[in-house]
Structure formats: structure tokens, C-alpha cells
Amino acid sequence: MIIKISSEKSTAELLLDGAMLHSLKKDNIEYLWQGDKKFWAGQAPVCFPIVGVLPDGKAEAFGKACEMKRHGIARINPFKIEAQGKNSVTFLQKSSDETRAQFPFDYELRIKYTINGDTVTNEYIVKNTGKDKLPFVIGGHPAFNCPLEKGEKFEDYKVVFDKGINIPCLRPDHETGLVDVRREYVIMNGESELYMRHDLFDKKDALIFENIESKSATLIGKNGKGVRLDFQDMNNLLIWSAEGKAPFVALEPWTGISSCSDEDGIFEHKRGMTILEPDEEASFKFKITMI
């Protein structure tokens, strides 16, 4: 099922399956990657209650066994539409026997999309509906067409940060998805611009900018078209494209990162963990602006 929301300038389409973005259009230009199994069939999955992977897909959370595939359970379990208007829609997922079999906690996850002008606000609202503490990380995974227009190529694009980047990157292992924190990659030395090249990603997976001071990143081409991501509520930004010269770039704002080599396998000890008390709620937003 596809749900459409619109402003006077732009439109967004959302899928009930996964409660995720399916299309972002301005001036008849499709900004969102449309999925292609040759490279990556996904588009913009919501990652919860993990981002990335767990070692062997397993962890212990407050003494309870968890077993989840990459990016967690939200994207593979049902949502319903809780509220809908011309320019916004809210999806709701409640914990169930199926979710508790993998992640033994009770929760409500609301995903709200609102479009104003050329900007789509993505809001994730998590509520602990159980009697125990609820640990989680959460993140977005939107991928954008790159290039956007005919006559352009991948290398015509760059990511421009609102502040210079002085920290080295981490990178997940291309096969396992795990992060060896002893291996750091110096990609930028104070610059605010990172030019896109396919060899940045071939067999190397994503660039992880952990605890990044910058809170805005713009993927922009030589013709001035692109997208800006504003992620005030997220501590980490990943930049990724699939190997084989995939024509997209994903900008992924996450509260945590994939499992790391210096972690002890205890879920609540993972980087960026949010822990909610019973009946407590937390909200995380990021914005996508079509340029």
C-alpha cells in the first residue's frame, strides 16, 4: 500500500510495508533511490532496535536473549496507519509475539512523516509499554539517486558538511558488518567537502562518522541539484553506496552504530544506546530537503 503526502511544491510517497519512504519528487525529479536488486533492492528502511548487525546476530539485553538480523525488527514486522492528513502520515507498530521472539521487550514505535515546502521531516517516537527497561538504537537509511539528471555522473557529486571534518572514519567489515575500532580511516583533514567516487565504497562498505559535530550534510551535483540532510537528534552519520558502481548514495543518520570489536556482547552496553523506563517516551527527528 502506497500513501502519498504533498505540499504546494513537492510530494512524498510512503510504503505501509516497513513504514518507509518510497518516493521523493520535486519538479518531476525523483530524488529517492527506487531500488534495484543488481545493486541494492532497498530504499529507506527504518532501523530499530539495532542499526547494523549483532555478532552472529545475537546479544543479551538485561539478561534476555535477543536474536535479530541486520537493522533489526521494525522493517520486517507490520505497521498500521494511525493518522493521516494531506501533508503528514503517522505509522504505528506495537510489539507482538513475533517481535518479542527476537527482541523480548514491549514497545510502541511511531514513524511520522511531514512534508512542508521541499522538506520532509522524519520523526521516530519510541515508547516503552512494558514493565522492564527498554534498550534500543534507531536510525534512518534513505538512499538518493546519484546522479539525479541526465548528463551527470556519480563523480559530479559531493557531500558538503556544515562544519569541517577532523575525525577519522570507522568502517564495517564488508562481509560481517562488524566494526573493528582499531582500524581508522582518515578520509578528511578538516575539509567540509567529500567528493563521491565509486572506489570509496567498493568492497569497503560505509563511511561511519561517529559522534560527528556537523549536523547537516548536503549531497549536491554540478548542476546544483541534490538533497540536504539535517540530523540534530542523531550522533552519527553514515555515507554508503553499493559496490559495482551503484547510482545512489545513502545518507544514514543513526543514534548508534553497528556492533564494535571492543564491545562485550551486552546489548545495553552498545554505543549510542537509549534506555527508556516503563511508560517513558523518546523522539528523534531528521529532515530531508530536496534542492
The count of DSSP E runs of length 2 or more, i.e. the number of strands, is: 23
The overall pLDDT average reads 96
Strand content: 35-45%
Count the DSSP helices: 1
Outline the biggest β-sheet.
9 strands, antiparallel
Overall 3D form: globular
* Distance linking N and C termini: 27 Å
Helix share bin:
under 10%
Structural class designation: mainly beta
Order of strands across the widest beta sheet? 8-9-10-11-23-19-18-15-16
Could you name the ranges where pLDDT drops below 50 across 5 or more consecutive residues? none
Radius of gyration, in Å, reads 18 Å
Order of helices and strands: EEEEEEEEEHEEEEEEEEEEEEEE
Description:
The chain has 291 residues and is mainly β. It is 1% helix and 40% strand. The protein has one helix and 23 strands. A nine-stranded antiparallel sheet has the order 8-9-10-11-23-19-18-15-16, with no helix packed on it. A four-stranded antiparallel sheet has the order 1-2-3-4, with no helix packed on it. A four-stranded antiparallel sheet has the order 14-21-20-17, with no helix packed on it. A hairpin with a 3-residue loop joins strand 8 and strand 9. The protein is globular.
Would you spell out the secondary-structure blueprint of this structure?
Blueprint: E1 2-6, E2 10-15, E3 20-26, E4 29-30, E5 46-47, E6 58-61, E7 64-67, E8 80-84, E9 88-94, H1 97-100, E10 107-116, E11 119-128, E12 134-136, E13 139-140, E14 143-145, E15 158-161, E16 193-195, E17 207-209, E18 216-220, E19 226-230, E20 236-240, E21 248-254, E22 274-276, E23 281-290
Antiparallel strand pairs: 1-2, 2-3, 3-4, 5-13, 6-7, 8-9, 9-10, 10-11, 11-23, 12-22, 14-21, 15-16, 15-18, 17-20, 18-19, 19-23, 20-21
